[in-house]
Amino acid sequence: MAETLEIVALGDSLTAGYGLPDGQGFVPQLQAWLDDNGVDATVVNAGVSGDTTAGGLARLNWALSDGTDAMIVALGGNDLLRGLPPEASRANLDAILSTVVGERALPVLLIGLEAPGNYGPDFKADFDAMYPELAREYGTLHETSFLGPLVAEVDMATARKRYVQPDGVHPNAEGVRLIVEAFGPRVAELVARVATN
């Protein structure tokens, strides 16, 4: 029987499951989706609330183990909240992917975010572009926005009421369910890439 694969989810509070009861965060709901869909993989929660791309890079070697088979990288939200320069965020993500893809030869799903307009059009353009450009450069799987599934069928105001916690930032359990439904097939694709790597 094939060995269960290990996927490390490197991220921030969105990955960690901030504000949610046990079992309702992104990683446990994703694990349940994989189990229900017959995908033989274990997801390790390496999400740390408040982490920036720099923080993710700093603990990358701690997050990766010899048994890691693939990685989900979902960082950048706290860089956005702090208005950090997109070129700094990009350099950190580049360094993460250089290690994971370049040195370890592990498949990656890179999950981006979309910048709001309040930092100006140049900031938004640079921030939004870094995820698809890095995904192409490193040949990773890519999803445009962690929070994108929340507004796939309703407007932002409705999504905030239905799917976001009172802090206005983090998805509630139902919001996480939508995110996992959208990204589950991509994670299954990520697992399939391990076999061909």
Fold and architecture overview:
With 197 residues, the chain is an alpha/beta fold. The chain has a single domain, classed as Rossmann fold (3-Layer(aba) Sandwich). The chain contains 9 helices and 5 strands; from the N terminus they run βααβααβααβαβαα. The chain has a 5-stranded parallel β-sheet with strand order 2-1-3-4-5, sandwiched between helices. The protein is globular.
Topology:
Elements: E1 5-11, H1 13-16, H2 26-36, E2 41-47, H3 53-58, H4 60-63, E3 70-74, H5 77-82, H6 86-103, E4 108-111, H7 121-138, E5 141-143, H8 156-163, H9 173-196
Parallel strand pairs: 1-2, 1-3, 3-4, 4-5
β-strand percent reads 5-15%
Q: How many distinct beta strands?
A: 5
Distance between the termini: 19 Å
How large is the radius of gyration? 16 Å
Give a short synopsis of this structure:
With 197 residues, this protein is an alpha/beta fold. The chain has helices spanning 13-16, 26-36, 53-58, 60-63, 77-82, 86-103, 121-138, 156-163, 173-196, and strands at residues 5-11, 41-47, 70-74, 108-111, 141-143. It has one domain (5-196): Rossmann fold (3-Layer(aba) Sandwich), CATH 3.40.50.
Any descriptors?
197 residues, alpha/beta, Rossmann fold, 9 helices
